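User: Some background: our group keeps a shared notebook of sequences we're curious about, and every so often someone picks one and asks for a predicted structure to add to the entry. Today it's my turn. The entry only has the sequence so far, pasted here. Could you supply the structure so I can complete it?
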Amino acid sequence: MTPTASLPTGRSGRVLTIWTPEDKTFWEQQGEAVAKINLWISVPALFLAFAVWQVWSVVAVGLPGLGFKYSTNQLFWLAAAPALSGATLRIFYSFIVPLVGGRRWTAISTATLLIPAIGIGYAVQDNTTSYPTMLMLALLCGLGGGNFSSSMANISFFFPKERKGSALGVNAGLGNLGVSVVQFLSPLVITAGVFGVLGGDPQTITKNGQQMQVWTQNAAFIWVPWILLASLAAWFGMNDIADAKASFATQATIFRRKHNWLMCVLYLGTFGSFIGYAAGFPLLIKSQFPDVNPLAYAWLGPLVGAVIRPFGGWLADKMGGARVTFWNFIVMALAVGGVLYFLPSGPSGGSFTGFFLMFLVLFLTTGIGNGSTFRMIPVIFLNQAMQGVNPADKEAVARATKDGNTEGAATLGFTAAMAAYGGFFIPKSYGTSISMTGGPEAALYIFIVFYLICIGITWWHYARRNAPMPC
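Assistant: Of course. Here's the predicted structure to add to the notebook entry:
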């Protein structure tokens, strides 16, 4: 007879003492319903984390018009600092869910987003705010970037192997929408005093020769009530899984696993590309097509990449993560070649339409690849843990399943940490290439070479016939 989890109400009842999603009877009777509740609370919390993480991509652009006397280089660092701190925090966040509990950490980490959101809202109202203060607030936005690792690790515990790709794709894909929404929504909410006297006084800027009032603080304040709501929903609505508890030493075994490092490379190629292209797209448009308004188009790329990510996870569940990832990297390499073709220096002589469409293909493939690689990771570690285990030995199977899920969750978080550095290095590669050669071509050629390496890794280790770890 299959044991069932007791789910009493009250705070003490938020801990699931029995959680066996691979047991079909358990999953159908009560596991699926509980898992979905946790997923659908996790999604908006992660959405808000991405919004706060990327808010400086919008705020930094408007600071000179508000009278802030920062250099161009200082503004660049304000936009880049959240990527650096977020990627670094992800390393620590990768291991925290089994130490603290998914419910507790989701609520606490979401609530910490209030610090940069409120801080930025007040700081931008005073153009004498010091640069070190602004830089510190930018670094604190990395709290949002860090949340991704813990969120994905947590959700991976709730779903069975055949559903992990779809669930992680939904969590990450809808969460990634925060990147696009913050770029689209911020220019709109700063045009009105939506918070009345609570939101502070407007600032006066000159645009197209005319003076107008703006409430720049709204770009940060608009997220505050939603952060509060999401934090409360996580605390009172989500669950901790007792069997997901593990020490750091137990999780640290992933550093001895070859597949941890291989998947770091592959996820850098997918999510690192997504967040890096999102951060650098407006600047690249402006530098190559000066007559085009980048803010009118740039948000569409991250939108496409975020929306398609759940499909990537679903497709990987149906066809296999390695197969989807392999062909996805081939398309990514071809799409970068297309970008090179449509640059002003390319054979086309410069076509913004072609350039933009090729980048939409790139964003599309980063989204699909994000979903498929994150389906590969838990499957790899679960299969690895089950090697040599007698299926008839239920105790051994349960122990191996727990070990595989623990290592898979830690790897999900750690690979996400490594990949987030793409948010800094891709735009920086554009800048270095332009300063050294006069154009971004050198950076784009390096990206193609990297994707070819990813194709080779995926094929040899995971996708070919008789691969060491098919997934």
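Suggested note for the entry: Strands lie at 15-16, 203-207, 210-214, 240-241. Residues 1-245 form a domain with the Growth Hormone; Chain: A; fold (CATH 1.20.1250.20).
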